[in-house]
């Protein structure tokens, strides 16, 4: 996971002074009763408190176990590399030594990286409390300090079919069909909706992008990489103030400008990826003409309700998509990218819109109202991954 760090941490939200325990108004007994009821309601528990309740579900591995599981972190078993470190395919034995071994993915902290223990701990705590089919499952971790220095590793379920990024942008792979693209985005939206509203606390994912959407053998999406996740605001707070981190081209503008992080920040990034699956283009491609390098700027010239709209659709789809459903997806993306964050839909509303688009696609049976266009020759894509700016 490569990230950009723009601002230092904003000043922490000032602690509110304790208000009087009782606001007495003898003339309005019903108000006092309401106040008593509100005071009696339990306060939401924090991520740390929820984790303490669930930490027994995670297995604690020794460094030697994970070294053996990866054949001493053999380069031939490396699955990928990011800002945190490298990810390896490994095989672990059951804790009791009985039964079959399990294939896993093991992420090893880069000791010289700028990210590190804080993000490792974030992944352990957030993934230690969540349970959803569209979120990658954390099986355990390793945390040892010794002569080798600090060793921080994470052990996940193995998700074999790479990422949405790989299947969208790698020209050596078969084209990802239209309906499958929508189904992947629906699963990802359901995972985000769970983080936003399905837990005792709200979780802001903060790093939604196509490279963080893992795909299993059935192309079921699983969100991964929770190192940047944050607990959402509580009480009457509207946002979390934090350093601006994320991936260039994805972060919401109000977050980049102010450091104010909200649930709506995730909605913006989801809108960016919706345009990626529509166009087959990365959010930034420096090898294109200047007017086309930034995806969100380019698509503005092809509104979803215009005759020009079909010109932005991924040519590798060969018009095997229903134009009506495609327009709906672009309209949904535009709503997610609303400049005023309060005007963006909730992720639950996004889920319903995607279900409707999938239904439209099924009814259309792959028919399209646009004229066939030749497939553009594939120029070599430049991999514009996250960068610090």
UniProtKB/TrEMBL annotation:
UniProt domain Protein kinase: residue ranges: 73-358
Keywords of the record: ATP-binding, Cell membrane, Kinase, Membrane, Nucleotide-binding, Serine/threonine-protein kinase, Transferase
Secreted listed as a keyword: no
Sequence positions that bind ATP: 108
Catalysis performed (reactions): L-threonyl-[protein] + ATP = O-phospho-L-threonyl-[protein] + ADP + H(+); L-seryl-[protein] + ATP = O-phospho-L-seryl-[protein] + ADP + H(+)
Record's compositionally biased regions (Low complexity): 367-380
GO molecular function terms attached to this record: ATP binding; protein serine/threonine kinase activity
Protein name: non-specific serine/threonine protein kinase
Matching Pfam families: PK_Tyr_Ser-Thr
Annotated Gene Ontology cellular component terms: plasma membrane
Region (Disordered): 10-39, 351-389
EC number from the UniProt entry: 2.7.11.1
Localization terms from the record: Cell membrane
SUPFAM superfamilies: Protein kinase-like (PK-like) (SSF56112)
Domain of life: Eukaryota
Family per similarity comment: Belongs to the protein kinase superfamily.
PROSITE patterns: PROTEIN_KINASE_ATP, PROTEIN_KINASE_DOM, PROTEIN_KINASE_ST
Species: Rubroshorea leprosula
EC category name: transferase
Keyword Nucleotide-binding recorded: yes
Family annotation (InterPro entries): Kinase-like_dom_sf, Plant_Ser_Thr_Prot_Kinase, Prot_kinase_dom, Protein_kinase_ATP_BS, Ser-Thr/Tyr_kinase_cat_dom, Ser/Thr_kinase_AS
């Amino acid at each position: 996971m490569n990230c950009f760090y723009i601002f230092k941490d904003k000043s922490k939200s000032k602690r509110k002074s304790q208000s009087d325990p009782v606001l007495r108004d003898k003339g309005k007994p019903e108000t006092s009763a309401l106040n008593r009821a509100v005071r009696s309601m339990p306060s939401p528990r924090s991520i740390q408190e929820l984790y303490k309740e669930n930490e027994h579900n995670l297995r604690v591995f020794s460094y030697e176990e994970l070294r053996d599981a990866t054949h001493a972190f053999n380069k031939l078993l490396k699955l990928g590399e990011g800002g945190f470190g490298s990810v390896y395919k490994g095989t672990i034995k059951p804790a009791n030594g009985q039964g079959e071994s399990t294939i896993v993915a093991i992420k090893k902290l880069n000791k010289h990286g700028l990210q590190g223990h804080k993000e490792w701990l974030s992944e352990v705590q957030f993934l230690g409390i969540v349970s959803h089919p569209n979120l990658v499952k954390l099986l355990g971790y390793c945390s040892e300090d010794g002569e080798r220095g600090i060793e921080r590793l994470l052990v996940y379920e193995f998700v074999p079919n790479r990422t949405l990024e790989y299947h969208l942008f790698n020209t050596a792979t078969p084209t990802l069909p239209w309906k499958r693209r929508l189904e992947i985005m629906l699963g990802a939206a359901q995972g985000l909706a769970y983080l936003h509203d399905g837990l005792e606390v709200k979780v802001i994912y903060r790093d939604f992008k196509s490279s963080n959407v893992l795909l299993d053998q059935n192309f079921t999406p699983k969100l991964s990489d929770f190192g940047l996740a944050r607990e959402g605001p509580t009480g009457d707070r509207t946002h979390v103030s934090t350093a601006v981190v994320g991936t260039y081209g994805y972060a919401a503008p109000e977050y980049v400008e102010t450091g104010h992080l909200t649930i709506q920040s995730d909605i913006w990034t989801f809108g960016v990826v919706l345009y990626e699956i529509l166009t087959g283009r990365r959010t930034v491609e420096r090898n294109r003409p200047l007017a086309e390098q930034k995806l969100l700027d380019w698509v503005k010239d092809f509104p979803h309700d215009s005759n020009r709209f079909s010109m932005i659709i991924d040519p590798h789809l060969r018009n095997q998509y229903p134009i009506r459903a495609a327009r709906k997806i672009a309209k949904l993306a535009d709503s997610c990218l609303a400049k005023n964050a309060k005007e963006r839909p909730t992720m639950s509303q996004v889920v319903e819109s995607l279900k409707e688009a999938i239904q439209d696609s099924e009814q259309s049976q792959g028919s399209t109202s646009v004229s066939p266009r030749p497939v553009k020759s594939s120029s070599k894509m430049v991999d514009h991954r996250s960068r610090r700016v």
